[in-house]
# Entry
Amino acid sequence: MASINEADHQIVSELEAAAERLGKVRHAIGRVIFGQDEVIEQVLIAILGGGHALLVGAPGLAKTKLAATLGRVLGLNEKRVQFTPDLMPADIVGSEVLDEDETGRRQFRFLKGPVFCQLMMADEINRASPRTQSALLQAMQEHHVTVAGQRHDLPRPFHVLATQNPIEQEGTYPLPEAQLDRFLVQIDVPYPSLEAERRMLFATTGATEAEAGTVLSTTELLNAQRLTRLIPVGEQVADAILRVVRAARPGPDADDYVNRNVAWGPSPRASQALMLGARARAMLQGRLSPSLDDVAALMGPVFRHRMALNFTARADGHTIDGAIGRLSGLIA
# Structure
């Protein structure tokens, strides 16, 4: 029994130390990205959960700068790819080239694409063709790529931050629902508040700009991800997760509103995302176990891209956020 208590005490000490370091991470990012505290928290939740995030927001809201800053602060090798209609799968995963050595012997050599990094910024992912989107999303799910029958593993950790512009939809290829489901969260990036925009105005138009330094190493981040999965989840929180996920799907577990207005609901991946997200949010806030408030706070980011309203509901002015708001009442 003493050894068990000793092991628990060790985990608690590690969690407290990790939470303190993550607080410094948030502070370092906040010095560069103004007025987006909730967005920063949700991105860190996705990374601590070992997943990927889809950022949806208008141009100029520092989505690309957020990815670059995250890479620097977390000590990750970061790359950015601008998605365009003519982008090919090989432009992302890499390709084989034919080399000839000094003796005249020819052989194929694999040239790695930009997906071989630890943090990839997929800018305007919906501008690329479905074939190219699928190449990236397969790598996200399987953490390896296969070229000419050979498997090539991606680095650890590996995270994708993809962006979409909700305003301009001409010439885009919206991600299918099955592919959207591979993102742990969808983060809506709002305009900053007046005070945040004022701070940004003076901080970014002077002679110098603040830069974030490295706070975590790759090893420390991997350890934080491991600790996130060790945080205990109470039965009450687990029951709430299952209740809201199942109630969001049309069927016997849903109420009349969902059955009338929702075309399809979240998959079991939503349950996993809520569980991981609740654990990660608790760690970020220095708590040793998640609460019902964590589940409620993450329902939007987890459900938003995993639900769809039917045509009648959209015509009547219903929204996904409105449906999620109704479901949040089930958390008690």
